[in-house]
Amino acid sequence: MTTSERELKALMLAGQGGDAAAHRRLLERLSQHLRAYYKRKLASFGKGAMEAEDLVQEALLAIHIQRHSYDPAELLTPWVHAIARYKLIDFLRRSRTSRADVPIDEADDIMANDDHVATENSYDIRRLIEKLPRNMQYAIGAVKLEGLSVAEAARRYQLSEPAIKVSIHRGLKALANLIAKEVKT
């Protein structure tokens, strides 16, 4: 865990505990990171500082409103970056911006993976899977995330192969519904 992560997490936990000054410092520190993130991302789409500042404010508001949903057992920065990414995607949808709007010489930069994407996605998937019933969690975790066969997962969890298949099918459907609900918020 980096020093920045430790400091930010300590401020978040203090803020969750009712320390308004710590919460204010957290939002101030996050605003610096978010501003740099949005300026870098939006520049690729020909957008400026004004749009970046709007997104910073939207993200900070979402962080403030959703602070109760942060799990102290997890890292803070992937949680923050997930919110920031969702706000960016929403903005790009609203403004009908697409990769086609980007000059061809900048296309490689746009297509390159963000450093935080893998961590954010991993955090998002784990968090959503935890909302599923245990059998679905086990089946999806074993087969889809660990790469076990259905037969291996069935042996591991002492379930039938059809039970594993049904749990995966229903679990993936439930995950899709959870993701759809989160995208709307």
Task: Give the arrangement of secondary structure elements.
Elements lengths: L2 H14 L3 H24 L5 H18 L9 H19 L12 H5 L5 H13 L4 H12 L4 H8 L3 H24 L1
Helix pairs in contact: 1-2, 2-3, 2-4, 3-4, 4-6, 7-8, 7-9, 8-9
Concise summary:
This is RNA polymerase subunit sigma. This protein has 185 residues and is an all-alpha fold.
Number of strands: 0
The CATH topology of the largest domain, please?
Answer: Rna Polymerase Sigma Factor, Chain: A
Corresponding CATH architecture of the largest domain: Orthogonal Bundle
Q: SS-based structural class?
A: mainly alpha
Number of helices: 9
The overall number of domains is 2
Family: Belongs to the sigma-70 factor family. ECF subfamily.
Domain RNA polymerase sigma factor 70 region 4 type: 124-175
Organism: Bradyrhizobium neotropicale
GO molecular function, one term: DNA binding
What report would you give on this structure?
The chain has 185 residues and is mainly alpha-helical. It has two domains: 1-116, RNA polymerase sigma factor, region 2, helix turn helix motif (Rna Polymerase Sigma Factor, Chain: A, Orthogonal Bundle), CATH 1.10.1740; 131-185, Arc Repressor Mutant, subunit A (Orthogonal Bundle). The protein has nine helices and no strands. The chain has helices at residues 3-16, 20-43, 49-66, 76-94, 107-111, 117-129, 134-145, 150-157, 161-184. Helix 2 runs antiparallel to helix 3 (49-66), helix 4 (76-94) crosses helix 6 (117-129) and helix 7 (134-145) crosses helix 9. It is elongated and about 55 Å long.
